[in-house]
Here is the input.
Amino acid sequence: MNAPHAPFATPPLPVALLDALRADFADRCSTALAVREQHGRDESVFDVPPPQAVVFATCEADVARVVALCAQHRVPVIPYGAGSSLEGHLLAVQGGISLDVSRMNAILRIDAEDLTVTVQPGVTRRQLNEALRHEGLFFPIDPGADASLGGMAATRASGTNAVRYGTMRENVLALRFVNANGDIVRSGSRARKSSAGYDLTRLLVGSEGTLGVITELTVKVHPLPEAVSAAVCSFPSIDAAVQTAMQVIQLGVPIARCELLDANAIKAVNAHDRLGLKEAPMLLMEFHGSEAGVAEQAAVVQDVAADHGGEAFEWATTPEARTRLWTARHHAYFSGLQMRPGCRAVTTDTCVPISRLAEIINASIADVEAAGLPYFIVGHVGDGNFHMAYLLDPALPGELATAEQLSAQMVARAIALEGTCTGEHGIGLHKQRFLVDETGEQAVAMMRAVKAAMDPLGIMNPGKIFSA
Amino acid sequence: MNAPHAPFATPPLPVALLDALRADFADRCSTALAVREQHGRDESVFDVPPPQAVVFATCEADVARVVALCAQHRVPVIPYGAGSSLEGHLLAVQGGISLDVSRMNAILRIDAEDLTVTVQPGVTRRQLNEALRHEGLFFPIDPGADASLGGMAATRASGTNAVRYGTMRENVLALRFVNANGDIVRSGSRARKSSAGYDLTRLLVGSEGTLGVITELTVKVHPLPEAVSAAVCSFPSIDAAVQTAMQVIQLGVPIARCELLDANAIKAVNAHDRLGLKEAPMLLMEFHGSEAGVAEQAAVVQDVAADHGGEAFEWATTPEARTRLWTARHHAYFSGLQMRPGCRAVTTDTCVPISRLAEIINASIADVEAAGLPYFIVGHVGDGNFHMAYLLDPALPGELATAEQLSAQMVARAIALEGTCTGEHGIGLHKQRFLVDETGEQAVAMMRAVKAAMDPLGIMNPGKIFSA
Here is the structure.
């Protein structure tokens, strides 16, 4: 396997391709450096040359046309939604065209009776929820960033509500996508279940742009709960917080969100949002249901928390108070960055069976404290998934190497504990050898066989998940 | 595409293969006609020659050995679990070896803290639930038959609890399988979510034995609810029953089971189990939760049912009373067959968005009544899925043709209503052209490309999902 940072030989873009794109797309095809650079960078730390051109699609036919032209000229196509990837998915490691679908942002249908919506791939989760609110519905998947639904499907995203509502894996019912030949393919339907042939929908979900460009998604939505309440509770240790989460899940409490923030993360959000929270490990929880149901869930969780030394719950029952708490959670990443001005973050994403979660978090803290890097932790602990962010001074290149070594240790530990190297961010550029460690050569060989069968020219976001 | 009933040229089994199988498996390799015939028939109406030999595997290495030998000799391998398929999955349409995994029936691990279990593929759902009961856990997926978990995964099965707990698609976390080369492949992990590469687990789930032989499954299990209650309610029409189910789902009531039986099905179960139920469309429902939560759910559903002319609920709160009702539901199929002694049934399996369910059921009833065939209906209406069983006299071959025509009309209608030709039974032998109608030539071409990449010799259950 090539190292992801090996120098790639990027041939110049064929003149005939650029001429054809300009003829078809006029000012929606750009080679301006600023536009290309904006499309050649994401939230990751990778630094590679930008794509050679950017095309802004406004419809499925545009996408099909770009892919067909790129296939004809053997040039890479890199789908671009909101640019919020964390694993280098958008980077033009082999050159090529960034295909920006952010203007394909129409909400096509809301079928409230069936609890489904159909959207273009550039629709973002906030935009969708804004439109759904008036229908008494919501789309639960919340990865933090205001990501596009196409990108969320491509990375199999999840986030804070997954413990109750599942991830993109469970919530995408149907797709339309353009395959590597430029053909338009439909998979799935609005029916909630089906046994009709291979699950192409689930194959595209998490394929990171390497099998096709998603042009339309039908996703499940949910009725807005009659009652919602949020609570925070501080614990004497991370163990105590994680044990609480685990017992709550085991008891079958349908908790909607169950987020861990470590003391460092609390310090950061206190500094950023003046929250005045106790600087100790904290669970931030949300309950959805009827008035009585929410109260009952909360009572069970309070009992369990008290057994583990949790302090009295602090409640947020009004929408404003809840928004304040969840804004803090959403700001945790950027608040954390501000704890070390000028820093960049390397963020881990392991996920393990919940019974092993305290073990991996504690071992990872011991490692990072021994190494002396600043860090903070946020976690979707109901799922066994957590993120440790290492805060690096870009002027000290040794810190990146240290962070990568810590991250590799954590992944090895997650795999030994029957977990995964990535709960929700994807493989991208930098976890390719971890994928092999996790699932084995045989499984990766089968993934490569699927890739070769569906993209024989290797033009769909090449170099991601595995090198060509 | 070849018609599934076209005569297949089955070359005799190579002597070298049979010698090798006998050397390795001794009396676990059988060519006795009775054994072969038992493995060459399922619950479907298809009639083809039996497999040429049956091998009983007792471990993963056995499976790998059989597949490797069959690959060497280019002979089909047909995985066999409990034999309860309804779509001809087990039939040796191109000859070959039936690979019986029913003796691989060990429950390998119960990880109660993580709500996961790991089993061999021959474990049946009743066996698993028997073992889980002592742990306070249950496995929700209930297709009616006491199917094997390997077979349930291979057909993406679901059943009565899917409305709340999902199908095999949502509940399989990890697999081990033997691919067409005889290699052992691992996919997924015990982590509840992952973004690590292509979703081979979901690709195998629903692949009907055409991509590999499942040798181990890790599935989600759930805590036994604190309280369970079941209720039946009769309605003046199928419309009224379906509207009730739809509103209950829309209100976000986490109903655990929501089954429709039409008046014919009620007549059948009354005759078979002496239930004395009113012979009108009926919903059979189950609620899981806390004592208070179950009562609250039931109250909401009673209100909705009353709005649609539902009669007073008849409750079953004791385990014995619930078992009696659910036994009736599980017996519906066989009770129905007894309404026309000596008959065989052709069972449909369409699934549509729930808002279109009443429309397709009513139109299908009009069609079957015009055609004059006896029938009954059971449905997982919370999911939009229903089964109409046509009861055929085998002595009247015209009836099979009529049933097939009615079934084709129903499928065309389901597809027009944005649904699927199969909610939970699979494509098998007889729905291959419906798959093309439903998802289009482009998607089926991609499925075929995946098949060719993963099984280049075409030995894995050939002739199922699509013809070779």
In short: Confidence is low (pLDDT under 50) at residues 1-7 of chain B. Residues 156 and 206 of chain B are 4 Å apart (CA to CA). The longest helix of chain B spans residues 397-416. Chain B has three domains: 15-103, 107-223, 227-416.
